[in-house]
Design goal:
elongated; mainly beta; about 40% strand; two-stranded antiparallel sheet; three-stranded antiparallel sheet
């Protein structure tokens, strides 16, 4: 389980290993280990459905192990 600061509709900062308070315009949320900084967040939903994986641009792919994107061509 990870702990993030959410600001607006975005996962802003991983604070799993730190004692940080959210800014006045944010809040803390617990998330599964497969969620990373930069993901979207939808407070209208519940459970794991709240976390929105980023969509990489055309020609890029998302790596679920690292939470990053890379060019499709680099995988070949």
């Amino acid at each position: 389980m990870k702990r993030f600061i959410v600001i607006g509709n975005s996962i802003a900062l991983d604070v799993s290993n730190a004692e940080k308070k959210p800014p006045s315009n944010g809040f803390l949320v617990n998330a599964p280990d497969w969620v990373f900084e930069g993901w979207g967040y939808d407070a209208r939903k519940s459970g794991d459905d709240r976390f929105i994986r980023p969509r990489p641009p055309e020609g890029w792919v998302y790596d679920p192990e690292t939470g990053t994107v890379c060019r499709e061509a680099d995988l070949k």
